[in-house]
């Protein structure tokens, strides 16, 4: 993917990535990232579908290649502002319609985009996420976030160094698997590629985004969704259990669900062929 840059509504420089259209008139799929997941997490879907669709994704403010906002205040990381960043990217690329495909935090951002950009989405693909306040599915983590934000603010440089060292440790993948975040069969080279940029995360910006995410609620959007929607989840996802996807599907008028046996929170990375085939069929069935 080619990296490009654009200045958002408040002066924040946003980095985004694009693939070339495979042919004139090819439709666009907007990939809406997870909070800690780099755009490389979409590799399987991009490689499989890039001969049919053009892909665009962007780094959230403060994450990876995008700048932190100025003034750097908690409210600047609101989910609504991520959608405003997306609006600027779409304007720069001249995209008026497309599919919204969100993973994890990206489900919240995609639902907010559906709310704020009426008529843009021709369909939705929502992977391993929830419409309700995400941290309430893990209340222990939700209670810790304010303290972690304060700690990262006071010891920003140290926290970033500790994170980099922890992710580079050989046992890091083992612990992620034990926590249920990764399937044991995930290819080691793929995992290493994903974890390398995660070691460069700005820890303070990460937790500011996490706190803003915890305050976001898109429950009221579900019944308003009037486009075909595919929800994908794993039966071993401890962060966004499959029951959340099934409950969302009951409230979305044109919803379909795929539950991947053995899938964790990284289902699309662990089972790229299965997930990509299902997305391809979903797009074909609904004329996208």
From TrEMBL:
Named from the GO MF annotations, one term is: hydrolase activity
Q: Does the keyword Hydrolase apply?
A: yes
Q: List each copy of the AB hydrolase-1 domain by range.
A: 28-270
Tell me which UniProt keywords the record has, alphabetically.
Hydrolase
Keyword Hydrolase (UniProt): yes
InterPro entries cross-referenced by the UniProt entry: AB_hydrolase, AB_hydrolase_1, AB_hydrolase_fold
Q: Which SUPFAM superfamilies match?
A: alpha/beta-Hydrolases (SSF53474)
One Pfam family in the UniProt entry: Abhydrolase_1
Quote the Gene3D superfamilies the UniProt record gives: alpha/beta hydrolase
Look up the signal peptide feature and give its range: none
Supply the PANTHER family for this chain.
AB HYDROLASE-1 DOMAIN-CONTAINING PROTEIN (PTHR43433:SF5), HYDROLASE, ALPHA/BETA FOLD FAMILY PROTEIN (PTHR43433)
What is the protein named?
Alpha/beta fold family hydrolase
Q: What is the native source organism of this protein?
A: Sorangium cellulosum (Polyangium cellulosum)
């Amino acid at each position: 993917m080619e990296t490009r840059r654009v200045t958002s509504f408040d002066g924040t420089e946003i980095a985004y990535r694009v693939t070339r259209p495979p042919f004139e008139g090819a439709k666009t799929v907007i990939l809406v990232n997870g909070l800690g997941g780099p755009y490389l997490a979409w590799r399987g879907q991009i490689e499989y579908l890039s001969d049919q669709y053009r892909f665009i994704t962007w780094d959230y403010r403060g994450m990876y290649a995008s700048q932190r906002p100025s003034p750097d205040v908690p409210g600047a990381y609101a989910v609504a502002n991520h959608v405003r960043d997306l609006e600027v990217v779409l304007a720069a690329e001249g995209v008026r319609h497309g599919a919204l495909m969100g993973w994890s935090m990206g489900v919240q951002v995609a639902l907010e985009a559906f709310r704020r950009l009426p008529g843009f989405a021709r369909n939705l693909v929502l992977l391993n996420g929830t419409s309700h306040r995400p941290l309430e599915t893990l209340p222990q983590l939700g209670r810790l976030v304010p303290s972690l934000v304060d700690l990262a603010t006071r010891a920003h440089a140290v926290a970033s160094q500790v994170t980099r060292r922890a992710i580079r440790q050989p046992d890091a993948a083992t612990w992620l698997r034990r926590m249920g975040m990764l399937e044991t069969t995930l290819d080691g080279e793929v995992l290493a590629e994903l974890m390398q940029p995660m070691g460069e995360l700005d820890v303070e910006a990460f937790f500011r985004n996490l706190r803003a995410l915890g305050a976001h609620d898109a429950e009221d959007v579900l019944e308003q969704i009037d486009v075909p929607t595919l929800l994908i989840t794993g039966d071993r996802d401890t962060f966004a259990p499959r029951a959340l996807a099934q409950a969302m599907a009951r409230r979305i008028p044109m919803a379909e669900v795929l539950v991947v046996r053995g899938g964790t929170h990284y289902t699309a990375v662990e089972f790229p062929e299965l997930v990509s085939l299902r997305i391809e069929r979903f797009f074909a069935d609904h004329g996208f």
